[in-house]
Specification:
- This protein has 122 residues and is mostly helical.
- The protein has one domain.
- The chain contains five helices and no strands.
- Helix 1 crosses helix 5 and helix 3 runs antiparallel to helix 4.
- The radius of gyration is 18 Å and the shape is elongated.
- The chain starts with 7 loop residues before the first helix and ends in a 7-residue tail after the last helix.
- Keywords: Membrane, Transmembrane, Transmembrane helix.
């Protein structure tokens, strides 16, 4: 399988920095403009992180169960979805393309939020 790094430790650090640190500015800006209480926002973030980790574990188990079949496949989740059903593979492909565009939304929101403040100094 293709690897993001030669070391599992560096791969984990890169994944953490992309998935967690990337969201930090978005979540802090959201907390500043959201009328919900801090405890509600904290609870939502914790629940979201737990659900995300569970989904990653399920995906990892699916990869491990089909490791020989997935060797050399660039998008293993799309391949597994198409193996279950071609229709499911097509639906997942559309979702995957949409996810590529929506992944940058928090970063764009964070930058525009800073730029559109009344007294923003650049």
């Amino acid at each position: 399988m293709l690897k993001p790094s030669g070391s599992w430790l560096w791969a984990a650090i890169m994944y953490f920095s992309y998935c967690i640190l990337f969201q930090a500015s978005y979540l802090s800006g959201l907390a500043a403009t959201n009328p919900a209480s801090t405890s509600q926002l904290t609870q939502s973030v914790v629940i979201g992180a737990i659900v995300y980790v569970i989904a990653c574990i399920i995906m990892l188990l699916a990869f491990m169960a089909n490791i020989t079949e997935l060797h050399g496949i660039e998008v293993p989740t799309l391949h597994l979805g198409a193996q279950i059903s071609p229709f499911l593979g097509a639906i997942y492909g559309v979702i995957l393309v949409a996810a590529l565009y929506t992944t940058t939304a928090p970063l764009v929101w964070s930058v525009t939020n800073v730029l559109l403040r009344k007294n923003a100094v650049l």
